[in-house]
Task: inverse folding
């Protein structure tokens, strides 16, 4: 979210994407409630007012992906002229299907790496803001790096480590 506020790219999502991340967190984190995550969802939509994509449903039926449940993501990306779908499920968005629309799929670690090379100061500022927002409990830089590693962001940590004093 903090990286989305950096201005380096336009973050976009849909109500269905919100429902997917909320559902995944509720399945994996018994300490969270739907009300807590709805608050986060509302804050996300307020922080980046033009991020919410709608009226993409008409495109879904004509799209062919390995997982039909992912068609809504590609449909929204096409509608808002996104260049990249950032996902841990890159295999579900094959290049031959995305390329005709000028879209690629990238793992979050790869996307952050590209963003880092666009503007290291902006990425460091976003990570610093993210760490500052973690107050219950607060996180040291190493604890944040451990969290990133658990999320499969090894390259991100490698890039950020030399800048730890700025985070």
Result:
């Amino acid at each position: 979210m903090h990286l989305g506020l950096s201005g380096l790219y336009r973050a976009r999502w849909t109500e269905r994407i919100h429902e997917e991340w909320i559902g995944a967190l509720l399945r994996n984190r018994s300490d969270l409630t739907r009300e807590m995550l709805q608050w986060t969802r509302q804050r996300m939509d307020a922080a980046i007012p033009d991020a919410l994509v709608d009226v993409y449903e008409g495109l879904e039926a004509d799209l062919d992906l390995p997982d039909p449940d992912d068609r809504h993501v590609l449909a929204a990306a096409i509608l808002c002229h996104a260049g990249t779908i950032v996902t841990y499920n890159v295999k579900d968005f094959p290049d031959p299907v995305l390329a005709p629309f000028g879209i690629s799929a990238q793992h979050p670690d790869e996307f952050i790496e590209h963003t880092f090379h666009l503007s290291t100061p902006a990425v460091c500022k976003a990570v610093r803001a993210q760490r500052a927002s973690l107050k219950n409990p607060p996180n040291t830089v190493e604890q944040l790096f451990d969290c990133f590693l658990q999320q499969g962001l090894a390259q991100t940590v490698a890039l950020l480590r030399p800048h730890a004093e700025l985070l």
The chain is about 50% helix and 5% strand. Residues 4-107 form one domain.
